[in-house]
Design a protein that fits this description.
Blueprint (H helix, E strand, L loop, with lengths): L25 E2 L11 H9 L14 H11 L6 E4 L1 H13 L6 E4 L6 H7 L4 E4 L18 E5 L11 H10 L5 E4 L20 E6 L12 E4 L2 H14 L6 H12 L1 H24 L2 E2 L7 E6 L4 H10 L2 E2 L1 E2 L9 E4 L3 H15 L2
Helix pairs in contact: 1-7, 2-7, 3-6, 8-10
The structure holds 4'-deoxy-4'-aminopyridoxal-5'-phosphate.
Length: about 350
Amino acid sequence: MKNWENNVRRVSPYVPGEQPKDKNIIKLNTNENPYPPSKGVIKILKEYNADSLRLYPDPSSEELVNALADRYGVDPSQIFVGVGSDDVISMAFMTFFNSDKPIIFPDITYSFYDVWADVYNIPFERKPLDNNFRINEKDYLCENGGIIFPNPNAPTGVYESLDKIEKIISYNSDVIVMIDEAYIDFGGESCIPLLKKYDNLLIVQTFSKSRSLAGARIGFAIGNKKLISYLNDVKFSVNSYTINSITQQIGIEAVKDESYFKETTNRIIETRERTKANLKKLGFIFPDSKSNFIFASHKEKPAKAIYEELKKRRIYVRYWDKPRINNFIRITIGTDKEMEKLIYALESILIG
Ligand code: PMP
């Protein structure tokens, strides 16, 4: 090993799902939305004046922040935007998790949390979900340096009630509790109303799933004014120009088109419910999902074999060879047609 390597910040990076080049693959592996972005977004891209790219973008993304504030009924000073919710959560880890006490999150959850904790040298503890993949709220009623979990959780899809979450937030008034609502628009109830009661709550959402904009990279946080101003201080100390000017405009259009948002999220919910019934008929079991994916295990056939067989048939789902979840596949909800093809492929794999 070279001497300079002693001073390198070494981390095991997050491993994103595969992004195959082949367009003929049925891609149900990274929870993207199967429907295109709203018409307003497409119009912006068609009519964009490239000359404006000479200029730096608005560093505070003011118009996008205002559009989000309008949509969610909060003051613009309560909104922080970033390059996908990954960027927002990473900034929030840097800003709020600075205690010597460990931050806590579930043992089965978004696998980026421990990576950020490592890269920022934040101690952390994982609290085991119960056998039904539910959070045991008592695990979170203890001394800690901060809390984060998604609701609905990933990759399980399990949604926890606001009552349970409120108990955790109210007990932990001395630390920041972050609720990652990446999948909240697929049937769950957001924690946003709790912001009126708790100043230690930070809610993070994304345009990647329910607004069909994973490729544009927009995420945002909602919290009280003071929290957001601390976040902005850190952001402006790392990179002032995070969201590029085209993306800021796209984001505004996506937020404004409420009817398209409702139409597409409802369509995904309906397809998900139909898929649940079809998977059950084939002998799959799964925790109930309120997200745009289903985390399923088969009563007989090992998940890894199903994952590989599907891949051979050009259908990609996600599989993790990790304790407790290595007999599950996570299936993103696609279009009805894609899900029909999935069920057909599963029938041939399981029944022959
Ligand atoms: N949180 C959770 C729970 C996720 O599953 C994802 C998607 N990988 C993200 C955050 C990040 O999404 P994005 O950066 O695209 O907003």
